[in-house]
Design goal:
This protein is α+β, with helices and mostly antiparallel strands and about 230 residues long. It has seven helices and six strands; from the N terminus they run αβββαβαββαααα. Strand 5 and strand 6 form a beta hairpin.
């Protein structure tokens, strides 16, 4: 008689994982909707107030499909991107030390919202050699609980994974903290050696400006954030 036990296990595991990942994806998508709503509200609130500071300072909000939103203020554009996949963590990650996760390992499966910082002109003028920086990653699990891996305050203010739920209020806090970080994160000039040589072809094609790469910390590298919990 043919043994169907392995096939049954495959189907059972598939159904379990598929259901879990669907739930996580729905929670992450809901979190992203909160981010979009709060960024739109922030834009509407700041625009008239910023105009009083200087009428030429742009404050913009734009959707780039269902999974990407851009918020621009002055010379900065902050991109929030919802990843389409669900992930868990490397065995060495600090998340596995939490009793919240030890009690139910499925809580370690998370969707992700990435937060990137670009110079606004890099996107406006299609400067392909320019660089953006990952400011934060927002992890959201099946229960809607979240934590943030990020720079400065983003890495330690939002790390109560067992208790913190990514609702509208939390989305606003994280979004505004991201904006504050990016505004306080000033660009450095590229190293001299990096822009010291250009080709005649670049000049003839009038593309010299696009060949001089810019980024907020070009030539400098962040140390990885490790103290997350």
């Amino acid at each position: 008689m043919e043994d169907h036990s392995n096939r049954d296990k495959i189907l059972s595991l598939l159904a379990e994982k598929a259901k879990l990942k669907q739930t996580v994806s729905e929670q992450a998508a809901l979190g992203f909707e909160h981010v979009k709503d709060k960024l739109k509200s922030l834009t509407e609130e700041l625009r008239p107030r910023v105009a009083k500071i200087h009428k030429t300072i742009p404050v913009e909000f734009s959707l780039k499909g269902n999974a990407e939103v851009e918020f621009s203020l002055a010379g900065d554009t902050i991109v929030f991107l919802l990843h389409s996949n669900v992930f868990t963590f490397d065995p060495s990650h600090e998340i596995w030390k939490l009793s919240y996760v030890k009690e139910d390992v499925s809580r370690a499966f998370c969707g992700q919202i990435y937060v990137y910082n670009f110079l606004s002109e890099s996107l406006k003028f299609f400067r392909g050699n320019d660089t953006g920086y990952l400011v934060a990653r927002i992890f959201i699990n099946k229960d809607g609980h979240y934590f943030v891996e990020g720079k400065r305050q983003l890495g330690f203010l939002y790390n109560d994974f067992p208790n913190a739920v990514f609702d509208a209020a939390q989305a606003q806090r994280v979004a505004e903290s991201s904006v504050l970080y990016c505004l306080d994160f000033d660009p450095f000039t590229p190293p001299y050696e990096q822009v010291g040589v250009v080709s005649v072809q670049d000049v003839l094609e009038s593309s010299l400006r696009s060949k001089i790469a810019n980024g907020k910390r070009l030539g400098f590298k962040f140390q990885a954030d490790t103290d997350l919990f």
